[in-house]
């Protein structure tokens, strides 16, 4: 299954902590709250600051804060800022993998890999830090509906899945 890298996971946790905070937080406070090694966190915070997602202030009341509202920062923004451009996420034929495999690969599964990557990208782009904090963002229409262009089918599938699970 797909999973976020440790760097992205820590970056997400740190940004969610900053989104909840009512003041600037030091790297030590963030590291302690999120149980993240401080030296590693500082590297991640530096990347987030360079990309403009967070800001830092020096001084007694200094520390880190989000540079804009949590609703304006997508998970995709965050992942891209700490990871850079991501390589193809699924590769069924590593011997054919190259920098241009998204466009020029003779791999039979290129279409499947592209569809999976587009679905994940849609979810990451469509989910803000505020959505996560509010826990109101439903991924089902994004994953199933947008991937195949028929949101009603995905909602029916999801509803029937819930009904079937309730029967068990």
Explain the overall architecture.
- The chain is mainly alpha-helical and 168 residues long.
- It has a single domain (6-137), classed as Arc Repressor Mutant, subunit A.
- The chain contains nine helices and two strands, in the order H-H-H-E-E-H-H-H-H-H-H.
- It has helices at 6-20, 27-34, 38-50, 75-83, 101-104, 110-126, 129-134, 140-148, 151-167; strands at residues 54-57, 63-66.
- A two-stranded antiparallel ribbon has the order 1-2.
- Helix 1 (6-20) crosses helix 4.
- It is elongated, with a radius of gyration of 19 Å.
Reconstruct the topology from this structure.
Blueprint: H1 6-20, H2 27-34, H3 38-50, E1 54-57, E2 63-66, H4 75-83, H5 101-104, H6 110-126, H7 129-134, H8 140-148, H9 151-167
Antiparallel strand pairs: 1-2
Helix pairs in contact: 1-2, 1-3, 1-4, 2-3, 6-8, 8-9
